[in-house]
Amino acid sequence: MKVKEAMHKGVNWVDPGTSIVDLARLMRQHDIGAIPIGEGDQLIGMVTDRDIVCKGLAQPGFDAKRATARDVMTPGIHCCREDDDLAKAIHHMEELQVRRLPVINRKKRMVGILSLGDIGQTTSGDLLSECVRGVAAHH
């Protein structure tokens, strides 16, 4: 199976200047836990709900009304290609211990996101349990 058969399609990113409050609203509105961050035409990072809490709200002196995506995002981006074998992408997620991977096409444009939930809906029990064990291991 290929990544494109399992991923969420049509995912958008937001600018690094987007407020934390707006990020949280987008997460609630779309029932998602992560938002890619892009600048110009390139992905530059990712903000998860955990980033907002641990890198933001839990920090002394953090001002959620002034904070932006750039303040809490995890910089750099790891991704997979839409035509990658799904097992390869799952092993990549395990190695990185991440729950989501942006998916790019041959033109290096983001076309979706592959999440643990997507994997759970499309793969065998053995591959899924292997992935969950690898991704959920303590960092």
Automatic annotation (TrEMBL):
Identification of the protein by name? Inosine-5-monophosphate dehydrogenase
Note whether DNA damage occurs among the keywords.
no
Q: Which CDD domains match?
A: CBS_pair_HRP1_like (cd04622)
- List the SMART domains: CBS
PANTHER family the UniProt entry points to: CBS DOMAIN-CONTAINING PROTEIN, CBS DOMAIN-CONTAINING PROTEIN CBSX3, MITOCHONDRIAL
Residue stretches making up the CBS domain: 7-64, 73-130
Does the entry feature the keyword Kinase, yes or no? Answer: no
**InterPro entries per the UniProt record, alphabetical:** CBS_dom, CBS_dom_sf, Diverse_CBS-Domain
Instruction: State the organism's lineage.
Output: Bacteria, Pseudomonadati, Pseudomonadota, Alphaproteobacteria, Hyphomicrobiales
Q: Name one Pfam family in it.
A: CBS
Alphabetical UniProt keywords:
CBS domain
